[in-house]
Design brief:
Number of strands: 10
CATH class of one domain: Alpha Beta
Oligomer: single chain
Largest sheet: 5 strands, antiparallel
Structural class: alpha+beta
Number of helices: 6
């Protein structure tokens, strides 16, 4: 069997996907009002389909098919999942002139950090190489096209910084939700974009839920 491209994630409620659509609209309005060549700058953003959004806890990359069972068993041992999550402000990583990703922060406090640590330990127990990067809870809203200039990247970062707090562009009621499980997901890459396949769910009580089982 070929290797599989896997990640562990929290699946999002539909209301958060609606919030992501609202954030995109707010950011596009900011770009229109603040960037001199707004249409060109907006075209440099490759928006993530809200249907594909998730909160990644651990990206494993390519994994040998033989490790699937041990990885699922290790994730089962993480125990029950019960973490309250809420959406935070929009942001970007790194210097403005090198902006590559626009994201929405996910707030979950120590329980979320603890869940990410448990997942990391579970993945490491199977022999998969450690990630080495600090966990930063976020949902990817858009990626910046590689052909974007430094000036365009600065304009995007400035528009993100100027974005109103979530309470302004979101629904009136805060959309916090309680995560009760995590998912092991396989990513299928294609020219038309990625397709995600949930292989199993863990932490919901009663053991892991294997797809097709």
């Amino acid at each position: 069997m070929p290797d599989m491209r896997l990640f562990v994630a929290v699946e999002l409620p539909e209301l958060w996907r609606e919030d992501a659509r609202a954030a995109r609209g707010a950011l596009e309005r900011n770009l229109t009002s603040t960037a001199p060549a707004a249409p060109a700058v907006t075209e440099r953003l490759r928006w993530v389909d809200p249907a594909l959004m998730h909160l990644t806890l651990r990206f494993t990359g390519e994994v040998d098919y033989g490790l699937l069972g041990p990885l699922q068993a290790a994730l089962d041992r993480c125990g029950d999942v019960d973490v309250e999550l809420s959406l935070g402000a929009a942001g970007t990583f790194g210097p403005a002139s090198r902006t590559q990703v626009v994201w929405l922060e996910v707030e979950g406090g120590p329980p979320l950090a603890g869940l990410a640590a448990d997942v990391e330990a579970a993945v490491a127990s199977t022999g998969i190489a450690a990630d080495g990067r600090a966990f930063r809870a976020h949902i990817t809203l858009a990626r910046v096209h590689r052909r974007a200039s430094k000036e365009e990247r600065r304009a995007i970062a400035a528009a993100v910084r100027a974005l109103d707090p979530p309470a302004v562009w979101r629904r009136p009621v805060a959309q916090a939700f309680r995560a009760r499980s995590i998912a092991l997901v396989r990513s299928h890459l294609a020219a038309t974009g990625p397709r995600y396949e949930v292989l199993s769910r863990h932490g919901g009580g009663g053991g892991g839920d294997r797809a097709g089982g």
